[in-house]
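Lecture 7 notes: from sequence to structure.
We start with the chain below.
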Amino acid sequence: MDIKNQKITVANEDFGLWLSEIYINMEKYKGYQVIMTGFVFRNPEILKEDEFIPARPMMSCCAADLAPAGLVCKYDKASELKADSWVTVEGTLYIGEYEYGGVKYDDPQVAVTKITPAEAVEGYVYPY
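Predicted structure tokens for the same chain:
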């Protein structure tokens, strides 16, 4: 993390830690630039056409509960991204809104400024 320049470069081995940190302290990191790598996850049931998640498989208990985890990214060409392809995303963190079960929640999200292809990252991450 570069506090002076308000930039977070998420190392592959720290993905889960940074995800938790950003969710817990979203106000603190609002406006920061973030760089992170993940696979393109798009689900039309929960994400809009201009949204995707650079995700990593996250395990909270055992391998049976692996689920994609990451930050929602706003990107006008999200629908053109190939599902499950690996990308490095750069963008600005902001506090967006997420609705679940009819209730709206604050949600840290990324306004994408740059996307580049990336190599797949093996393994999974933990939320702590």
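Points to note: The first strand starts at residue 7 and ends at 9. The beta strands are 7-9, 33-41, 51-58, 67-69, 72-74, 86-100, 103-117.
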